[in-house]
Design a protein that fits this description.
The structure holds two protein chains of two kinds.
Chain A lengths: L7 H14 L1 H33 L4 H50 L2 H6 L2 H20 L5 H18 L1 H8 L2 H38 L1 H6 L3 H48 L10 H42 L19 E9 L5 E10 L4 E6 L5 H8 L7 E6 L2 E2 L5 H7 E4 L8 E2 H6 L6 H10 L3 H7 L5 E2 L8 H14 L4 E5 L7 H16 L2 E5 L11 E6 L2 E6 L1 H7 L2 H9 L9
Chain B lengths: L1 H11 L3 H33 L5 H50 L2 H4 L4 H43 L1 H48 L1 H6 L3 H54 L4 H42 L21 E8 L9 E8 L4 E5 L6 H8 L10 E3 L2 E2 L5 H7 E4 L10 H6 L7 H7 L3 H6 L17 H13 L5 E5 L7 H13 L5 E5 L11 E6 L2 E6 L1 H5 L4 H11 L7
Parallel strand pairs in B: 3-8, 3-9, 6-7, 7-8
Antiparallel strand pairs in B: 1-2, 1-4, 4-5, 9-10
Helix pairs in contact in B: 2-3, 2-5, 3-5, 5-6, 5-9, 6-8, 6-9, 8-9
The chains are: A alpha/beta, B alpha/beta.
The complex binds adenosine-5'-triphosphate (ATP) (2 copies) and magnesium ion (MG) (2 copies).
One magnesium ion binds next to helix 12 of chain A.
Chain lengths: 583, 579
Amino acid sequence: MAESSPSVGSLLWRLGPYVRADAPYYLVALLAAPASTALVVAQPWLLKRAIDEHILTGDVPGLVWIAWLYLGAVLVGFAAEALYMLALSYGAMRTIVAVRRDVYAHTLRLERAYFDKQPTGKLLTRVTSDVDALGETLTAGAVTIVLDVLLVMGVLGAMFAFDAKLTGILLLIGPPLAIVVNLVRARLRTLFVRVRTALSALNAYASERITGLDVVQLYRDEARTLESFDEKLGVYRDTTIQSNFWDALLFAIVDGLSSICMALLLWYGAGVFGASIVSAGLLAAFIEYISRLFEPIREFSQKLAVIQRAAAALEKIFGLLDTHAFVPFGDRELPGELGSIEVTDLAFAYEGGPDVLKGLSFAVRSGQTVAVVGRTGSGKSTIGRLLTRAYAGYRGAIRLDGIELSELTADSLRRSIGVVQQDVQLFKGTVRFNLTLGAPIDDATLLDAIRLCRADALVERLGGLDGRIEHQGRNVSVGEGQLLSFARTLAAHTPMVILDEATANVDSLTEARIQAATDVLLERRTVIVIAHRLSTVMRADQILVMDAGRIVERGTHAELMASSGVYHGLFESQFVERPEDTE
Amino acid sequence: MTTVTRFVRRYMLPYAKWYAAGTLCLWLTNWIAVTIPLYVAEGIDALAKGPAGRDTALSSALVVAVLGVIVIGIRTASRLLFFTPGRLVEAEVKHDVFARILAHQPSTLDRFATGDLISRVSNDAGMVRMLAGFASLGVVNTVAALTLTGSQMVRISPTLAALAALPLLGSFLVIQVFMTQLHRITRAMQDLSGELSEAALSSYQGVATIQAFGAGPAFEARFEEKNQAFLKVVLQRANVRTVFGPILSLGAAVNVFLLLRYGGPQAITGELSVGDLVAFMTLVAYLTGPMRGMSFIFALVKQSQASLERLEEVLDVPLDRPDLPDPAPPPGEAPAIEVHGLTFTYPGETSPTLRDISFSLPAGGTLGVVGPTGSGKTTLLRVLARLYDPPADAIRIDGTCVRCIDLDGWREAMTLVPQKSYLFSESLADNILLGGPRGGLDALVALAALDVDVAALPEGVETQVGEAGVTLSGGQRQRTALARGLARPGRVLMLDDVLSAVDHKTEQQLVDVLRSRSPRPTTVLVAHRLSALQHADLILVLDGGRVVDSGTHAELLARDGIYRDTWLHQTESEGGGHG
Ligand SMILES: Nc1ncnc2c1ncn2[C@@H]1O[C@H](COP(=O)(O)OP(=O)(O)OP(=O)(O)O)[C@@H](O)[C@H]1O
Ligand SMILES: Nc1ncnc2c1ncn2[C@@H]1O[C@H](COP(=O)(O)OP(=O)(O)OP(=O)(O)O)[C@@H](O)[C@H]1O
Ligand SMILES: [Mg+2]
Ligand SMILES: [Mg+2]
């Protein structure tokens, strides 16, 4: 495991902007904390005075006065503590909500190539558990560690004033203490990072298997699934138990060391260190101070552990926020409505893979329809993905109206090109949201698109535009999902449309009706149709036949049928039941 | 609080030994902690006597040092003995919840979103750890402190003890009010965590669409809405906890004041013994600490209760696959399927998706199912596979009601290749075999027409396919799923629109292979391309959930209807059709 972890300091420093936004809360917490501590400490002191100086001496007015003082201390202490807790929680919660917002927004902007490698369940852990862990540590009072340090210094100062030499001797315990604490701290940090890694692996696995639960159940894969889950769970469990051990040890060591300090003190008093025997009173005072000194040190070491947990979470969170794997966009706008597309020598490989497009050239004029056919895996969808800039890093040129695709702004591109993707993705929400995806499109346009795509009966069954679609679109059939996805793209009214197997799971009659209805609408748009079923491509102005990343044939249906090449073969095989082809 | 007691009994009780040992260690630690000052005092006293006491002082110093070292070990042990069961319990809960999710039928799980389920496994099960770890340690600490002080208080003065109990009782009552609130708020908070998790997961899974439509900002807004709702409840929780936290210790502290203010003067006048009063006050003051611990535990219990409830919603919902006392064995060979008056409504829907479907398919026969989009083809297959249970007696397999057959056995006996193929992020081979034997993999790959693609992949069948198979093309994914289905020697084989992924030649090949398999499985084919169904023994034409027509290919072509129209369209669209 490579562990070149960034330092806690630098991680916390980077949290600065978030903390600063809620600085007033943290400030109040920092002020209220010592006040509350002081008042809590004052209570037994007042009690002692009440007993020693008033009850035992029979001073009733003084006693009453002290009683009220005590009540005051209790109430103000309560208020200070409440204020501390409240301010701290408010600050921490506002901070994590802001962090969560940023992590989510950042993730959504990452390029598709990144998502190809990262299980979504792992990314999910970043925005949920990791952020929660950060919140927990912030509320646990990580901020007030500053106060503990101050307190330690204060007590040490007072001790020096009493007896510099004695304090010096006691300070000898400092370096070993620091070393031990630091060792444990480093160990904890490593373990906490491992805990977070194990947790995200566990969540990623669970998420994937739950998403594909149908398959697990249908193929009786439950036992194997549970076994793998348990394996990952075991890693998580064992790492957390290890971290517990070091955590507990840290706590105990600091505690035990205070006793060892006292022993040192007694030895000193007995002259072992060559000093003259000191007064018993001074010793008593020092014993008192040591317990005072170790109080904040104990707190400090506890918070140190807490902070390691925060640092581990932050390391993961910032690791994601530092991933700048974005598809680069340019700053040029398309001058008008999209005119033409010109693709020259286009080559592309997915990360780490071989070229899946190996030098394509074609041109589409405005208003034309181009069909792309070819065997599966030949690179058809890849063309669509490059045109919509889901992936960057192609070689060759793609020009829209003479402008290189990579120079366009994201907005300009989205306004120009709409796509029906091969994988239909629906979201939990209303039909309206699923069709507009938040774009300002009026209902009339939506209903129009729905009608054209023959989805009107479906939308009616769902309860109109306000009807609910369940998560992953599980209350609509596969074909119905395609109809909605088609409608979504039509409603966006982009001048160019890519239809990637848009009706592959729709029955032929419905498909024909959709085709008839949308022909008019698509007539003046530039359309790229990717299809298996040749019935949908025959009327294209140009047909590109792909094979293994290359265009092996091109022309109109009639031209291609005449040449008796690949297309002709594909056609034959698809309609084999008709032995003699006309055309 | 039955959820909590149930939890304690089910998960924590088995660790009783750990907790007992932990309590012992805790007790020892505390005993040593109070012993050390005694030796320190002894040392100081000895030193005060001058050089004569030097040896005594040195030996007490030694004892103190040794005790200090011992306490490190015991204290570590005491914490481990409490926290380790917490972690073990957490893992057990996670395991149980996940196992339960795997066992639940879709009819139950449809209610939950995937992201929410993960939140339950991850977040809620984690919450429970606090109960098994921290809270148990806290309870022991607090109970010990309370019984010690309490019994001493009663010994000194039962009346005063009773009086002192009053403010404490008062604050207990106040706390009850907040308890219900805390519970409600925590529940809302955990639910929102689930929603946030689902919102994130579903948008990460749908990132292709979101980015293609430039919908990022809209989704951010949707997410932020939930995020803010979450903020609102956690701030509410902070408010409640702020009052909740110190209120018990406040009760104790007010007690001290009352004793000082009213008991003090009485003691001075002699109505009360000074010694008793002083001792009493010291004890009450000492109570504030444990009281604080107590309210912390209360809060923890209430919060984990909300999580426990969310877990029980998964764990304790009965399985929608009741274990029959005496299940029928699954069919030993290709069975006959008889469906009679099958009407099926998805849970939560108002109108049925399948209406009065009847057909009978002989053993080893092939059933074709066609029909327009949304007509219920997939639903019929799901019901046959018992992903959703059909009404009793509607489906008979070789004369036995399908629901009477042992579910696992039935699933073993049949193979359904679903319409939407889901691949896992493992190698292509693992996806196909799902842990099964490797033999015949190449033949399977060839059968599903995947061989050309596999040859082109960098690492062949060992290529990792990425989550949900993202690194494969759509058709490759579908054919991989097909190969996965064909890898299993089912006695009933159901293919849901899978052949749409292959070209006609491959389709014919496949149909032939399926027909020539021996023994031949009873086969159900859903297809949009009718040419695949020409040899079916029976074809059902579904529309709107009903069987609107049925017969063989030839019979159906002979009459007007969807089937003939479709056939004509599929052959005619290329100009001049043949029938
Ligand atoms: N995200 C990806 N990462 C790596 N390789 C990929 C990825 N997506 C596709 N490929 C590979 O690129 C090749 C072309 O895929 P593409 O999706 O463009 O095919 P296609 O022509 O659309 O096929 P289909 O008809 O099956 O949809 C395939 O061999 C596929 O395995
Ligand atoms: N889980 C569900 N809950 C509620 N309704 C559902 C659910 N799944 C499907 N439906 C609805 O039931 C009907 C039948 O769906 P089904 O998936 O069986 O259709 P299908 O015939 O397979 O369609 P396709 O050809 O598109 O695959 C559809 O109207 C669909 O919207
Ligand atoms: Mg494709
Ligand atoms: Mg279907």
